[in-house]
Amino acid sequence: MILVTKPFLPPQEDYQKYLDGIWDRNWLTNNGPLVNELELKLKEYLHTPHVLYVTNGTIALQIAIKTLGLKGEIITTPFSYVATTSSIVWEGCKPVFVDIDAYSLNIDPSKIEEAITDQTSAILATHVFGNPCDIDAIEIIANKYKLPVIYDAAHCFGTLYKGRSIFNYGTISTTSFHATKLFHTVEGGAVFTQDSTLLKKMAFLANFGHHGPTDFVEVGINGKNSEFHAAMGLANFKYIQSILDARKSQSLQYDKWLDAIHWQRLEINTDADFNFAYYPLILEDEETALKVIKELEANRISPRRYFYPSLNTIPLYSSQSLPVSESISSRVICLPLYFTLSSEEIDFISRIILRALKY
Ligand code: T4K
Description:
Elements: E1 2-3, H1 12-25, H2 33-46, E2 50-54, H3 57-67, E3 73-76, H4 82-90, E4 94-97, E5 120-126, H5 135-145, E6 149-152, E7 160-161, E8 164-165, E9 172-176, E10 189-193, H6 196-205, H7 227-237, H8 240-258, E11 272-273, E12 280-282, H9 286-298, E13 301-302, H10 323-331, E14 332-334, H11 343-356
Parallel strand pairs: 1-13, 3-4, 3-5, 5-6, 6-9
Antiparallel strand pairs: 2-10, 7-8, 7-11, 9-10, 12-14
The structure holds ligand T4K.
């Protein structure tokens, strides 16, 4: 079976080396030395001033929302993983969806202003599939209305915007290090900010609000991550460039095959160095997308409908209608893409797609 993704695993001895240290120290979690080492490595690699390693990308979003004290409405994208929206609702705010741009698949900045009300407290946008939002346009609107911006950069490890890590943008940027991400710590996530005061508050929030063993300065949560998870990140670090390189060449191989068919490619922000986190295939209609999925599945290949359904159509969250996001959601398929996916497998997958579309 070829799945949409397969987590990267480093050679077992690389991980074992870190486990030996854990056994020696008997220190398993609560801001341990491997967590600190991972945070330092992340800061160095990403050239980012402040990072806090947390339990997962969802807690990262919730901590970001809580830290900024957001209330009322949050303007957000309907084309993302459900965690982007559920975090808003979990924190007692109302998601106000703004439709996406049909080519970048990110929130359409030209539609943000008309959604701002006196209840709006922030903009929360996802850099979908690792492709940066129109950050400059969003920043102009955010400054005009004095709104903080949270970027859900869950897909963005390795993406640069104007030559800097994308995690450096926004009031707070969050990411996920889930096993399915190109850089992972099994479960894990992080929050990034340029503002040391915000970082300090996030660190308190992620540690029950503790300020020393007996004092509490915030109503906190347990957002800590463990030494075992940090160890996986440290072991994986060594391979990050090979992982990024492999995804690029795999994507180019798909590109060559799929040149022959009629489909819409993700339009990458021209200021970006893209990380090739996903390979989305946007077909002309849902019927065609379902036909391709059926044919792939018949050949034991499992693509995914990332992201379906459009989040605004989930009754738990909204009853807004957003035609662009709904249309894209109905006809997008993400093809398998992972480190060990072989060239022969890409040929095989591509041939099946061509056959499904009768080329
Ligand atoms: N914001 C955005 C924009 C996100 O995309 C996400 C997560 C978040 C926030 C929240 O971050 P976290 O709280 O998760 O850190 C997967 C991931 O579970 C999820 O992390 C990710 N986005 C989302 C886009 O994809 P599913 O429901 O597709 O996962 P699942 O279990 O179906 O796995 C996908 C494929 O990977 C399957 O074909 C099986 C394969 N797989 C998976 C795992 C876990 C393996 O082969 N081995 C494994 O260990 O959500």
